[in-house]
Every structure is written in structure tokens, then in C-alpha cells.
Automatic annotation (TrEMBL), chain A:
Probably part of the adaptor protein complex 5 (AP-5) a tetramer composed of AP5B1, AP5M1, AP5S1 and AP5Z1. It comes from Gasterosteus aculeatus aculeatus (three-spined stickleback). InterPro entries: AP2_Mu_C_sf, AP5M1, MHD. GO terms for biological process: endosomal transport; protein transport. Pfam families: Adap_comp_sub. It comes from the Eukaryota. This is AP-5 complex subunit mu-1.
UniProtKB/TrEMBL annotation, chain B:
Residues 255-641 form the AP5B1 middle domain. Residues 843-939 form the AP5B1 C-terminal domain. The keyword Protein transport applies. This is AP-5 complex subunit beta-1. It comes from Gasterosteus aculeatus aculeatus (three-spined stickleback). The keyword Transport applies. Keywords: Protein transport, Transport. Pfam families: AP5B1_barrel (PF21589), AP5B1_C (PF21590), AP5B1_middle (PF21588), AP5B1_N (PF21587). GO terms for biological process: endosomal transport; protein transport. It comes from the Eukaryota. Residues 30-100 form the AP-5 complex subunit beta-1 N-terminal domain. Residues 748-818 form the AP-5 complex subunit beta-1 beta-barrel domain. GO terms for cellular component: AP-type membrane coat adaptor complex; lysosomal membrane.
Length: 491, 948
């Protein structure tokens, strides 16, 4: 349940590689040695680890199109753990090396194998693997923030904090915690001694007025082909994020999610570890199983004792019967120009009040755009500076008819070729929608302000919000070849 | 100072071996300890100093004794450290743990380790320390972690303290409770393991252990010294391996009240721990319950629901391991179905990272089923029975997946559909069709110009598909077609295609897909219109054809026809270097054809190709090799040909014969590289051969020569109209091994090519000299250097050699410099042969007269005197000037010496005995005088005669 070593590498597409941080855990290494016996392989020095890891991750020799070591088709790159073939005196295979990459940063660690080395045990039997993954993910979030990528200085200063941070979260190679993301409540004070045991994940106590903030966010993804032969796909998942400023060592808070009377049950519910108990019926509905009509459809109660920092209380998916915006996209070649025809229909159940709504129509493997003779029934049209993207801004509202369209012709006489893409060749093209609708969810799921219960003396202030946003919302050209084998998404 | 340390520490951790090559571990350790004791250094800096001890303790403390000493030092540093420097104290505890564990002090229960253990136990009981919550880590928590690590490295170490630790855990209410819980659980697990392994131990012992009376029963055994390695490694191994694993059990009877209460209290409070610690705790407790059949697995039930709904990967993993250990005694069939669904959901959940999803796919492939069918060997991937194609379809690969995810899904679904296909026909075909379509789509994406990563992913996907479905002919055939079409558009994929064929052949011995694929590849290459050939494309085609030619089952007529076509009309060359490479490509194919079983029917066309290459190809090297192949083909029987070429026809690197180097030049980097020796192996020594007097002696004593000086000079000078006349000096050397180098690799050197470099402009460039062989202990090789002076001066030459050693590799070595002395440039007078000996004096006088004349540019006369008796003088002349003597030897009044220095210079000496002896000098190049002077000084002083 420990890791033998930890490495943090930065690179830019395989170049300017540098080892930014490394940590070896000598006592874990000592254990690994006595566990593995004669098949023990020592961790080589950093520079060889770096070389081996880059080759294994396919990042080395980026200028060569085939390197046997890197590109062999027998390579098991499909596993989350890679093996490093150590050469030289300490010859052997170092396994399982876990690596996660985001942007310029690759984090890797080597979990201990606490099972007989031969035959090689399955990854799933080593608890140290999931521990290692959790540690790496936590460090990644700490270094890069959730999603964002910090500037070099920010990264360097966070890397400089790592030694003292590791002394807290992983002093001897056994991960105890992940760095706390997000700022803890401001008015936290150290705990006085009491009879109530304080959770480790609660770094202090809140003093002052109780405030509970519950934000419900649904995300919708879609692949629309506009063809009989291919089924359109869409899915919706929601997350409930809480920030609770409540007094007490282990205060009780309950958040309840409710669905409208005919709403489809929430599926695949995952909860934060601070949730104290769960009704088994909450968990039964699953997106990958036949949904029987008798499934539990709420209210969904989540009793928990909150940590100080914001956290994701739960997530779910929802089998919404229709996509919020149904689109049709037709692109045809006529002479040396393209004829475009697009219609977008906003479903009647969706609130016609957007924070933003844009349709992006990129063109790949073509020259730059010339004249764009396109008429839109609503909103306004823009061509990107690079002249390879048409942006159709739909503003805050669809017209009353809830339908907008675009017709026109585009030619590509441009002097310089635009971006390339191996999937979007010829008439394989898409429109991608970006939108956000405040104060609504597709599933109809909501958190009623009055349903949030806080068992504390003072009356808490409760803030709830909800929103719907799109992600990977594609409408493919129905008169071109759709990229087949796009499979099923979550449905 | 501080900055310097930061630099040194980082240099050490970057590469300890390189760092320690500049100093010793002992010195470095001493320095570190000194600095740690230094009061002036800040604690912030000292934390850094501890990192080498934490990370590489075994390098710095290679023996238990050093470890012991270092630990003592560190403990005294700790004792003097003010309580407020919390971080340093914590780090110091960590360093101490690392040193003591890695130097095996803990395993042997050394003095220092006992002291440290006492110190830690004291720290964990010091509840007055309330510094734990100010953001920094508390030494108390650090002490708990160190104790846990010590116990992990030496299982059973703290067994006697079980009750103490349990009590501490229960009393602790601060966040530090987590550290106590982790420590308590591990000590409990190890203690129960010890008991379970002891035959005869039972409920009573367990009770005593938990009640704190352990040492009554145990002391002798636990303190009996170090545990042996095998024992230790067994104790370290995870015990939750499921019904198939071997877990020692402790027979306690149904009543295990004490243990149960400890377990439930730990489980109840597990909620207060971080997910990482919860998972570890659960795992430890799983192991405990697995060892004690008296405790039903149902103790975990209360936690189960919370665990099944978790979003934390490590908690779900711990749950799976729980299931692995207890199967249906804890998990109902519904639970199992639910858990499986969860895994499917999590393997594609949009909120999870790619590695987490991959991990869940892996968990699906090793799902701990309640009732596993068969007991498949560990490590085998097999989807659980409950994973139906319908359920798995949620994990269908898509073109939008990243490489690893797509491959993992393809692998999983292949296994699922394969299983189903075995069960019966029907639905199967749809899933398989989908997978095939997916692979085809990937190939089409590659065809439309997908990047390197997509290419690699696509070929891996093809391999996976073939690996599982090579028996489904329909798909395999069309896959071959798709790949060939792809190859036609992108010939640069040849290495991938070859690799695919190789791997399929290797892993699927029973399938002939690879041969079929290669045959098809041959087809598309040879059928392609020659006009479509590009220079680069041809290189790849030849690579592919060379691989095709390795298959005995594929007839090679098309290949030979293709080669003929290429030779007849090769694509236009972009550069001369390309011709050599292309030629090698052609030869590589020919080479494999030479050993092809169908050679007989290829004989004539192949011979034509080789002959054409040997005659007309634009690169001499290729011509030569083609000629070699042609000769081999036409003169050797098939068996012999196979014998010559087949040994290394495959992938094996064998003795590097010339033909092999050519044929395999793409792979044999080492054979084609010239290696460099570390030091000089061989050297040239001058041979003090008899001066070329004999040559002079050959001259006839009498001859006809012009008696008139002017005529003699004219006739003599006329010879120099021939530009090559008498322009060289030949110096003999002996090439030998240098003493002191006994590397047996270089005992026998062959094909030595000596190369000389000039250090000045006095000589023309030297030609290389070849020496066929040089064997240690045998006669030295004679080497004659033919120097062509521009100006006869002493000089130094650089010398180097390239040779072949016995191992067949080429080597480059530098020889010691070769010094050419002034006198080595002397040559006898190149008088016309017809003159005989008599011409010398005439020419001497004529030249003397000319050089003594006032108006002659460059000419000079000089005088050199030295003390020399008459006898020794004539001996000196005989020794040094005999070949150049033009007067009669018996005439001791005056020796006339005429030295010719190529290309055109002369030095004339009239040596007259006397007190002192006089050397009258005349020369037509006054620049020689200084060299001549030092030469005369050397030869006269060496005879003991003092110069004037």
C-alpha cells in the first residue's frame, strides 16, 4: 500500500524534458526488496528512469515515425501501468509504473507489489495501485489546479512546496492524504480537546454564521448524426458541489435532491466519502442496465458531515429522453465552394434563457476561407481571425419559434492551408455547440432550499443554484460520412 | 554555504553514483552530520540536508555499524533540537527510520533501533503535544507513521504494544487519531498473522495479545532475534488473495469477543479517516478477518453500502479486495451484479481521469467473482460471466478515445465477444462486426493522415483484433485488404506493417494470416504502376519486399520482376548518398532471395538483376557487393550458398562477414561503426638498417662521365626535368604492438590501414600504408614510409590506424607520433647511372665551385670545427657519411661528402682532420645550415669530442 518512488516530469510534446521533482522512499524500497527476493529490480537513477519512461509513454524520438522500442504493436499500452525495462547491471523489469499526464506535466510513481512476483499478479490485486493513482491525481490537482494550467512560475513555486507537503501527505511512501484543493473556510480555528473525535479531513472548526452553498450543475454531451443508419446519442450527468460553513466537530447536514413527478430516476450515483449513510435504493439505478419502471425516483437524501473546503457531494447521470438542442447540419460541395445548411431546434422543455449559446463550425484540411455568404435567421455570424472557423453567436435567446437556421455558401481560396484533422476529411464535418443555461437542469433535478437541513443551533443561510452546460456537443454533417464506430456513449 | 548545499544535495539526488564518484559516501555522510550539528545553519536548510539520508540511506550507511553510528548522531541532533522546529523534527524522525531500517539495524534489534523505538513510543504517548493542528505536521503523528513503517518493515516488532496502541487510538480525539488507527490496524494484523502461523496458537493467545498480556506467552519468541528473509517476505505479502490464496488461519472458536470489539471500533471510526487511509485500514482488517474464521465477514456489512456508493477509486478497490477475500460470505449475488455494473459505469465515467478508467477496465478483467468458473491462473485476463455483451457495450471503443483507452476497451470487448462466440452463434456477429468496423475506422483515420500516435494505436488495435479473431476468416481477409490499401497510400508505414506481421507470426503460430498479408503486400507493391514510385517510397517497398522474401511459402517471381523494373528505370535520385542506400535496399532483397527455397526458379532473373547491378549501378560499393552475390549465386551450390548466407539471414547477429554487413546494413550498427580504442595499441619504430651503401656499391667502379664541370652539372641537372626524379626518401619502420597492452582482443589485427598526418608544410601528404596483418608474438611488420619533401627539414607525423580485430569489428587507434630526423632526409647522390663512381668527385667540385660563387642566391658556405683525432674522424665519416662519400676512403687528408636532400638540395662537406678537425660546408640551401649544425654537433659530441 505504498509507493517506492515518485517522479514529476515536465515536457513540451516530448521536448525540453526535465525531471522537476523526484522522491524515493527508502524503507518501501527495503520492503520491496525483501518481498521480491531474487526477482528484485532496483529503481535506477533518475536519468535512466526519465529515458525509459518517455519511451514507454511514446514521447521519445518524436521526429522518428517508427522506433521499435516505442511502437511495437505488442506493447500493452492499454493498461494504466507501464513497465520499464531496466538495462545494465540491475537488469530487469520495473512494474507497475503508474503515470498520469496533463498538459506539460507527467507524474509517475512505482507502487510496491505486495504479492508473489511470479507469476505477475493482476493490477487489481494490488491496493497500492489505486493508492498510487489517488496520490498522483491529488498531486496533479495541487500542481496544476483543477483543469487550469498555471504559468511556469506558479508551477515552480508549487513544486518548491512539495517536499514539505509530502512530509504531510506521504512521509514514508504510504499515501495518507491528498493535498487539500480549494481554500478552506476562512474562519477555521484549531479544535479544542473534546469527546467527539475529529475527522482527519476536517482541518479545523468553523466559527460564525452557518452558510451552506449547494450548486447543482448538469452537463450534456451529444453526438447527432442526422441519419437513419446511425442513432443519435446524448447523455447528461450532474454534480452537486457543496461548500458548508457550519459549526461543530461533526455537524450533520442533509441535502435532498428531488425530481419532478414524472422525472426519470437518477442513475450511477456516486457519493463523497463524507456521506454518512445511504439508502440502498438510491444506488440501484444504473445507466448500463435495463431500467425497470419501478426504480426509486427520489427524494434522494444525502446525510453528511462536511469538510471545511468545497467538495463534490455526489454525481449522477440521467436518462433524458431528448437532447436540449436538436440540430441538423448539411454540407455539400458545389463547384469549388461548400453549401451550408444548418437548423437548430431548442426543445420546449428547455428554458429559453441562455448565459451564452454559440455554434462553432470549423473547417479542416482546407485552405483559408474567402467569401462567406451565409445568412442566419437569428444571432450573428463571425469568422475567426485564422479564417478556418465560423462562429454563430446565438445570444441569450432563441426566437419564439425556438428554431434558428443558417444557409449559405463558403469558398476556400485562401493562400495558406488551414488546420488539419485526420477524422474530418472531405465532407466529414461537425458543428460544436457551446451553451450554458442558468437555473435549470435537464433531468429536472433540483435542490430545494428548504430541504437542506443543518442540525445546529443557529439558523443557517442556505444558497442553492443550478445550471446546465454543454460539453462535447457535436452535430455531424448528415450528407457526409459520419465517423463511424463512434459507439455508444453513456446511455 | 546554504546555496552550495542546495546544489550539492540536488546533484546527489540527481545521480548518487556520479556524485559519489567525486567523493566518498563516508566523507559525504560526515559532512552532512557535521552540518546538521552546526548551530549556525537554519532548520529550514537542515531539512534539506536530511533528504540524502531519507532517500538513499543504504548508499550512505552501507553497513549496520555505520547505520548504528549515524542513527546515534541523528538522535543526539534530535535531542538538541528546539521543540518549535516541528518540520525538522518530523523529517529527522523519518530520516532515522530510513537509516535504521535500511542498514538492517531494526531487523537485528540493534541498540540504536531499540533506543529509537523507545523514543517513538514515548512521543506517541506524549499527549501534551497539541501542536498537531497548526497546519504543520505534529511530531506525534510523525512518530506514529515511523512506528507504522518500522512495523511494516519488521512485522511483529510492536506486537507486544498492541494493547497500548489500541488504548492510545481510542483516547485520541484530535485529527491525529488517523495515524493511531493506521498503526493499530497494522500491528494487529501482523500479530494475528504471527499467531496464526504458530501451530497450536488459538483463542487464548489472541485474547492475551489483545489484553496486553502478550509478553507472558510471547516474549521469548518475539525477541528471539531477526526473522529470516523468507518469513519476512511472506508476512509482508497481502493476504487478501481470495479463496485460492494461502492464508494461515487462527482457530479460535466462535467466541472472539475481544477481537470483534476491536474490529468494530476500528471500522466505526474509519469514516473519520481520509479515503486513502480508510482503504488501507479496510485492507488490513480484511486480512485479519480472513485469518480468523471465528469472526464472520459480516462485521464489514455496516460499511458496505457506503463503500459501494463511493466515488473514490481506492475505496472501491478496497471493496473489491474485500469481495475477493470473502466472496459470497459477504457479497450476495445482487451485490455482485451491482458491483460489476458500478465498474462498467466507472470505466467510462466522464468525471474520472483516463488512468482511473483504465484501472477500472483492468478490475473488470480480474473481477473477483463469487463463484469463479475454473481457477484461471493469476494474471490471466478473463471477463466475469456476468459481463454480458449488452452490459459491456457501454464500453465499446470509439475513434474519439485516446490510444490507451481505445485499446483497453477493444481488448475487453474482444474477450467478451469471444466468450460469447464460444457459447453459441447469434448475437455474436453484431458485436464482432462493430469491433471490426472500429479497427477499420482507425485505419481509415490513419489513411487520412493521422499522426504517429494514431498510427501506433491503429496497428496495436489490428494486432489485438487478429489476436482474438484470427479464426474468423472473413474479417481477416478484409483486414489484409484494408492494410494493403493503407500501405499503398502511405508506404512509410512499412516498418509498422512488418512489425505487425512479425508479431502475428510469433504469437499466433497456428494462423497463416501473416503469410497471407505479406503475400498481399507483395502483390500491391509489385503491381503498382512504376510511375507512381518515389525515391522514399521505393526504400520502404524494398524493406517490405525483403521481409516478404523471408517467407519460403511465398513465391518470389513478382519480387524479382519488380527489382528488374526498378533497376531498368529507377526513380530520380535526390542525392548521391541516396543511391547507396537504395542499392543496399536492393541488395537486402537479393540477399534474402539467395536463400529462398524457391531460388532455383528465380536463378536466371535474379542473376540478371545482380549482374546488372554489378555493371551499371551508380555506386561502386553496391557494384562490388552485387558482384559478390552474383559470384556466390553462380558458383556455389544451393547448400553452400545457404551455409554462407543463411546463418545470419534471420534476425540473429552472427559473425560479421562482409556480405552480412551489406545485407543487414539496416540493423548492424555496431558492425558498421568504427570503434575507438582507449589507448595506443601499436607503434612504429625506426629500423636502423644498413645505410643504402650497397646501392652505391652497385655502381660500377668505372664509367663514362663528362670531365668538364659544366657539362657534368648540365647532365646531372637534366635528370631533374623529370618531376618525379629522386623526390622521395624512403624510411623503414617496424610496426609492433606496444608493450603493456595485453588486451587479448587485439592479439591479431588484420587489414591494418595506417594513415599519416603532417604537422607542417615541409612534406607532401603521405599515402596510406596497408599492412595485411599483425600478430602479437610474431615477426613485426615492415613498413616503408615514402616521404616526399618539399623542403628537407626534420618533422613530426601524426599516425593512426584502422584495422579489423578478431571479433570482426573495425577499430580506430592512434599511434605514437613519428619523428623524422634531419639526417633521415639524406639521400645518396642521384648521379646518372652511367657515370659510375667516378662521376661523384667531378660533380662535387662542380657544385662546390658553383656554391662558393658570390652571386648565388640561397647558396652558402660555412665552417664547423671540432676536436677529433685522425682515427676517430675517419671512423666518424665511415659511420655517418659512408654512403655519401665521393672521395676515396683511403684519402684521409680530405673526405669529400656529397649529401643530396630531395627534392633539390645538396650539402657538400670537405672534412679535414687537424686540431681542430674542420668541416667545410657548402650548400645550395642556406636554411639547412642550422639543422646541419645541430646534426654535426650531435654526431661529433657523441664521440666524446668537444665541439669548438
Amino acid at each position: 500500500m505504498s509507493v517506492r518512488a515518485l517522479w514529476i516530469i515536465s515536457h513540451e510534446k516530448g521536448e525540453h524534458v526535465s525531471m522537476r521533482f523526484t522522491r524515493r522512499f527508502a524503507t518501501v524500497e527495503h520492503r520491496a526488496k525483501s518481498l521480491a527476493g531474487s526477482s528484485y529490480v532496483a529503481v535506477p537513477e533518475d536519468y535512466s528512469v526519465l529515458q525509459l519512461l518517455l519511451a514507454e509513454l511514446g514521447l521519445s524520438d518524436s521526429d522518428k515515425c517508427y522506433v521499435a522500442l516505442r511502437d511495437d504493436c505488442l506493447h500493452r499500452q492499454r493498461s494504466p501501468a507501464v513497465e520499464l525495462c531496466v538495462d545494465g547491471p540491475g537488469k530487469g523489469i520495473l512494474w507497475p509504473v503508474l503515470a498520469i499526464s496533463q498538459g506539460p506535466l507527467t507524474l509517475a510513481c512505482l507502487p510496491i507489489v505486495d504479492a508473489p512476483a511470479e507469476p505477475r499478479p493482476p493490477l487489481a490485486s494490488l491496493l497500492s495501485v489505486s493508492q498510487g493513482l489517488t496520490l498522483l491525481a491529488g498531486l496533479q490537482t495541487f500542481l496544476l489546479g483543477s483543469g487550469g494550467k498555471p504559468d511556469n512560475e506558479g508551477l515552480a513555486s508549487r513544486l518548491a512546496m512539495l517536499p514539505s507537503l509530502l512530509l504531510q501527505v506521504c512521509p514514508l511512501g504510504t499515501p495518507l492524504d491528498v493535498p487539500i484543493s480549494g481554500a478552506p473556510a476562512t474562519s477555521a480555528v484549531p479544535t479544542p480537546a473534546g469527546s467527539q473525535k475529529q475527522p482527519f479531513w476536517k482541518t479545523g472548526l468553523h466559527r460564525g454564521r452557518a452558510v451552506v452553498n449547494v450548486a447543482l450543475k448538469e452537463t450534456v454531451r451529444s453526438m447527432q448524426y442526422g441519419k437513419r443508419s446511425r442513432q443519435d446519442l446524448w447523455d447528461v450527468y450532474g454534480t452537486v458541489t457543496c461548500k458548508c460553513e457550519v459549526e461543530g466537530v461533526l455537524p450533520n447536514v442533509t441535502v435532498t435532491l428531488t425530481l419532478p413527478p414524472n422525472g426519470s430516476p437518477l442513475q450511477d450515483i456516486l457519493v463523497h466519502p463524507c456521506v454518512t449513510s445511504l439508502d440502498s435504493s438510491i444506488l440501484t439505478a444504473s445507466s448500463v442496465d435495463n431500467c425497470d419502471g419501478s426504480a426509486f425516483s427520489g427524494p434522494y437524501k444525502f446525510p453528511f458531515s462536511p469538510p471545511l473546503e468545497p467538495f463534490r457531494l455526489c454525481s449522477y447521470t440521467s436518462p433524458v429522453p431528448v437532447p436540449p438542442i436538436l440540430g441538423s447540419y448539411q454540407l455539400r460541395e458545389e463547384g469549388n465552394q461548400l453549401c451550408v445548411s444548418v437548423t437548430l431546434k431548442l426543445h420546449e422543455s428547455v428554458k429559453n434563457c441562455f448565459e451564452y449559446c454559440e455554434a462553432h463550425m470549423p473547417f479542416f484540411n482546407r485552405d483559408q476561407m474567402g467569401v462567406v455568404e451565409v445568412k442566419v435567421s437569428s444571432g450573428q455570424m463571425d469568422v475567426s481571425k485564422e479564417k478556418n472557423l465560423v462562429v454563430w453567436g446565438l445570444g441569450q435567446k432563441f426566437p419564439k419559434s425556438r428554431e434558428v437556421s443558417m444557409e449559405g455558401k463558403i469558398s476556400f481560396p485562401g493562400p495558406t492551408p488551414g488546420p488539419t484533422d485526420p477524422i474530418c476529411t472531405e465532407l466529414t464535418a461537425y458543428i460544436k455547440l457551446y451553451f450554458k443555461v442558468p437555473d435549470m437542469t435537464l433531468s429536472g433535478c433540483c435542490v430545494d432550499q428548504h430541504s437542506v437541513q443543518v442540525y445546529s443551533s443557529a439558523k443557517p443561510r442556505i444558497i442553492t443554484s443550478r445550471e446546465l452546460q454543454s460539453k462535447e456537443y457535436f452535430i455531424w454533417n448528415s450528407s457526409g460520412t459520419a465517423p463511424v464506430s463512434s459507439g455508444q456513449m453513456m446511455l | 554555504m546554504a546555496a552550495n548545499w542546495a546544489e550539492r544535495i540536488s546533484a546527489f539526488s540527481r545521480s548518487p553514483s556520479r556524485f559519489l564518484s567525486g567523493t566518498t559516501a563516508e566523507d559525504f555522510l560526515a559532512e552532512l552530520l557535521r552540518e546538521l550539528r552546526d548551530d549556525r545553519a537554519s532548520f529550514g536548510a537542515k531539512v534539506l540536508l536530511l533528504s540524502p539520508l531519507c532517500e538513499h540511506p543504504s548508499l550512505l550507511c552501507p553497513s549496520a555499524a555505520v547505520g548504528e553510528e549515524t542513527a546515534m548522531e541523528l538522535m543526539s541532533v534530535l535531542a538538541q533540537c528546539p521543540p518549535k522546529s516541528v518540520q525538522f523534527r518530523c523529517q529527522l524522525l523519518v530520516a532515522l527510520t530510513a537509516v535504521l531500517v535500511c542498514a538492517s539495524c531494526v531487523a537485528t534489534r540493534s541498540r540504536a533501533s531499540q533506543d529509537f523505538l523507545d523514543l517513538l513510543l514515548q512521543l506517541v504517548q506524549d499527549t501534551g503535544d497539541l501542536r498537531g493542528d497548526d497546519g504543520l505536521r505534529s511530531p506525534r503523528a510523525a512518530a506514529c507513521d515511523c512506528l507504522r513503517e518500522l512495523e511494516a518493515c519488521s512485522p511483529g516488532l510492536l506486537a507486544q504494544r498492541l494493547e497500548l496502541l489500541g488504548g492510545l487510538r481510542q483516547r485520541e480525539t484530535s485529527r491525529l487519531h488517523q495515524a493511531y488507527a493506521g498503526l493499530h490496524a497494522l500491528v494487529l494484523r501482523n500479530a494475528v498473522y504471527r499467531l496464526a502461523r504458530d501451530t497450536g496458537a488459538g483463542g487464548e493467545q489472541l485474547k492475551a495479545l489483545l489484553g496486553g498480556n502478550a509478553w507472558v506467552a510471547w516474549e521469548a519468541e518475539l525477541d528471539s532475534g531477526p526473522v529470516d528473509d523468507g518469513d519476512c517476505s511472506a508476512a509482508l505479502s497481502s493476504l487478501a488473495l481470495g479463496p485460492m490464496g494461502t492464508v494461515p488461519t487462527l482457530q479460535t472458536g466462535p467466541d472472539c469477543k475481544e477481537l470483534r470489539s476491536v474490529l468494530s471500533s476500528l471500522l466505526e471510526e474509519s469514516y473519520l479517516l481520509t479515503p486513502l487511509c480508510q482503504a488501507a485500514l479496510l485492507h488490513r482488517l480484511t486480512e485479519v478477518v480472513a485469518m480468523v474464521p471465528g469472526v464472520p465477514p459480516a462485521v464489514f456489512r455496516a460499511q458496505l453500502l457506503r463503500l459501494l456508493g463511493t466515488s473514490e477509486v481506492c475505496l472501491l478497490h478496497a471493496t473489491l479486495l474485500l469481495k475477493c477475500a470473502f466472496t459470497d460470505s459477504l457479497f450476495s449475488a445482487e451485490d455482485e451484479a451491482f458491483l460489476l455494473q458500478r465498474l462498467v459505469v466507472l470505466a467510462q465515467h466522464p468525471l474520472l481521469s483516463a488512468p482511473e478508467k483504465l484501472f477500472h477496465v483492468d478490475c473488470l478483467l480480474h473481477f473477483p467473482e463469487n463463484r469463479p468458473i475454473g481457477c484461471g491462473a493469476d494474471g490471466d485476463e478473463a471477463p466475469p460471466v456476468l459481463l454480458t455483451p449488452r452490459l459491456a457495450s457501454a464500453l465499446a471503443p470509439t475513434v474519439f478515445d485516446d490510444g490507451a483507452t481505445g485499446l483497453a476497451r477493444l481488448n475487453l470487448l474482444s474477450l467478451v465477444y469471444l466468450e460469447e462466440a464460444e457459447g453459441g452463434e447469434g448475437e455474436e456477429s453484431r458485436g464482432l462486426a462493430y469491433l471490426y468496423e472500429h479497427v477499420g475506422t482507425l485505419l481509415r483515420v490513419v489513411a487520412s493522415g493521422g499522426g504517429r500516435e494514431l498510427v501506433v494505436t491503429a496497428f496495436r488495435a489490428v494486432f489485438l483484433f487478429l489476436f482474438y479473431f484470427c479464426h474468423v476468416e472473413r474479417y481477416c481477409r478484409s483486414l489484409t485488404e484494408e492494410l494493403c490499401q493503407l500501405y499503398l497510400r502511405h508506404a512509410h508505414l512499412a516498418p509498422h506493417a512488418i512489425n505487425l506481421a512479425d508479431r502475428v507470426q510469433e504469437k499466433l503460430a497456428e494462423s497463416d494470416w501473416a503469410v497471407g498479408f505479406l503475400r498481399a503486400l507483395q502483390g500491391v507493391i509489385t503491381m503498382a504502376p512504376p510511375t507512381s514510385l518515389t525515391w522514399r517510397g521505393l526504400g520502404y517497398h524494398l524493406k517490405a519486399l525483403a521481409r516478404v522474401a523471408e517467407e519460403g511459402a511465398i513465391t518470389q517471381h513478382r519480387t524479382v520482376r519488380f527489382l528488374s523494373g526498378v533497376i531498368a528505370a529507377p526513380p530520380r535520385s535526390p542525392c548521391a548518398g541516396g543511391a547507396w542506400r537504395l542499392g543496399n535496399g536492393l541488395l537486402a532483397v537479393c540477399r534474402r532471395l539467395l536463400v529462398h527455397p524457391g531460388l532455383d526458379s528465380l536463378f536466371i532473373p535474379l542473376a540478371d538483376v545482380l549482374q546488372h547491378l554489378s555493371r551499371c549501378y551508380g555506386d561502386t560499393d553496391i557494384q562490388d557487393h552485387a558482384r559478390l552475390y552474383y559470384t556466390l549465386l553462380t558458383t556455389l551450390s544451393r547448400e553452400k550458398l545457404a551455409g554462407v548466407l543463411a546463418a545470419d539471414g534471420g534476425r540473429r547477429v552472427k559473425k560479421r562477414s562482409l556480405s552480412c554487413i551489406v545485407g543487414e546494413s539496416e540493423g548492424l550498427a555496431s558492425a558498421l561503426t568504427v570503434h575507438r580504442t582507449e589507448k595506443s595499441l601499436i607503434g612504429l619504430t625506426e629500423v636502423r638498417s644498413a645505410p643504402p651503401a650497397a646501392e652505391a656499391g652497385e655502381l660500377r667502379q668505372s664509367g663514362t662521365f663528362p670531365t668538364e664541370a659544366r657539362a657534368a652539372l648540365e647532365e646531372y641537372r637534366a635528370q631533374f626535368d623529370d618531376p618525379g626524379f629522386a623526390s622521395q626518401v624512403a624510411i623503414d619502420y617496424r610496426l609492433t604492438h606496444i608493450d603493456g597492452d595485453d588486451d587479448p582482443r587485439f592479439d591479431q589485427l588484420f587489414s591494418i590501414r595506417l594513415h599519416f598526418g603532417l604537422t607542417d608544410a615541409h612534406y607532401e601528404e603521405l599515402a596510406d600504408v596497408s599492412v595485411p596483418r599483425l600478430l602479437r608474438g610474431r615477426a613485426a611488420a615492415e613498413v616503408t614510409l615514402r616521404l616526399k619533401p618539399r623542403r628537407p627539414r626534420p618533422t613530426t607525423l601524426h599516425a593512426s590506424a584502422i584495422f579489423t580485430a578478431e571479433d570482426g569489428l573495425s577499430w580506430f587507434t592512434v599511434l605514437p607520433q613519428v619523428h623524422v630526423a634531419f639526417q633521415q632526409a639524406f639521400a645518396p647522390l642521384p648521379a646518372p647511372r652511367a657515370w659510375g663512381r667516378g662521376g661523384g668527385p667531378v660533380l662535387f667540385e662542380a657544385l662546390w665551385g658553383e656554391m662558393s660563387a658570390e652571386d648565388q642566391e640561397d647558396c652558402a658556405t660555412s665552417l664547423f670545427c671540432c676536436q677529433a683525432k685522425e682515427g676517430p674522424l675517419s671512423a666518424l665519416v665511415a659511420e655517418h657519411f659512408l654512403p655519401f662519400l665521393v672521395s676515396d676512403r683511403s684519402d684521409e687528408d680530405e673526405f669529400k661528402v656529397l649529401i643530396f636532400l630531395p627534392p633539390r638540395a645538396h650539402v657538400l662537406l670537405r672534412i679535414r682532420p687537424g686540431e681542430p678537425a674542420q668541416f667545410h660546408i657548402a650548400t645550395d640551401d642556406w636554411r639547412l645550415l642550422s639543422h646541419l649544425n645541430s646534426y654535426l654537433l650531435t654526431i661529433t659530441s657523441s664521440r666524446g669530442d668537444a665541439p669548438p
